[in-house]
Amino acid sequence: MKLMYTFVRVAVIAAAVSLLSLSAAAQERKITAKQVPAAVITAFKASYPNATIRGYAQEKENGKVFYEIESREGTTQRDILYNADGTVAEIEESIAATELPAAAQEVIHKKYPRAVISLAEKTTAGDKVGYEVVARQGKRRITMEFDVDGKVLSSKIK
After folding, report:
1. Helix/strand/coil for 39
2. Which burial class, exposed, middle or buried, applies to 21 when counting CB atoms under 10 A from its CB (0-12, 13-18, 19+)?
3. 66-123: pLDDT as tens digits
4. How many CB atoms lie under 10 A from the CB of residue 9?
5. According to DSSP H, which parts of 26-149 are helical?
């Protein structure tokens, strides 16, 4: 009986974990241009008239729906998250590694002297600015997040 109870308990926990991971994955889904509110398309085209749109997505976070436009303008990749009314919720854009805060550059070079930065992004959400860096050192992939002052917020090595 005790073994059966343990098995059922493990099965219930596994099912709950599976449902949570499925709901997290379902928060963003690709959509077509026709499914994006006109206000979002208008706002994007007004702000980035020379950008090429690469894709659209709908995201749901804390019960609120956002629309993402993935684009490219020259060498800059940009993902913009909009509210349904066309106002910007968040901008993520690629930047040159030299545009990272000096303190962030220093941390990367001290901690990973042979690392080669493959991606640097600046994220702006309202008045909050952050940076994400992806680098390689040998076979290791390093991902770091920094605040506007270059303070490390997170660091992962794979």
Report:
1. helix
2. exposed
3. 999 999 999 999 999 999 999 999 999 999 999 999 999 999 999 999 999 999 999 9
4. 10
5. 38-47, 102-111
What lies within 8 Å, CB to CB, of 91 at 6+ separation is 78, 79, 80, 81, 123, 124, 125
DSSP one-letter string for 51-83: PEEEEEEEEEETTEEEEEEEEEETTEEEEEEE-
The amino acid occupying position 75 is: T
Average pLDDT, the chain: 86
**CB contact burial 66-86 (16+ within 10 A = b; e otherwise):** bbbbbbeeeeebbbbbbbeeb
Q: Which two tokens stand for residue 4?
A: 């059966």
Q: In this predicted model, which residue has the larger pLDDT, 62 or 18?
A: 62
- Burial of residue 59, with CB atoms counted within 10 A of its CB: 0-12 exposed, 13-18 middle, 19 or more buried: middle
Helical (H) or strand (E) element with 113: none
Specify whether the CB–CB gap between 24 and 61 falls below 8 A. no
How confident is the model over 137-151, as pLDDT tens digits? 999 999 999 999 999
3-class state of residue 46 by DSSP: helix
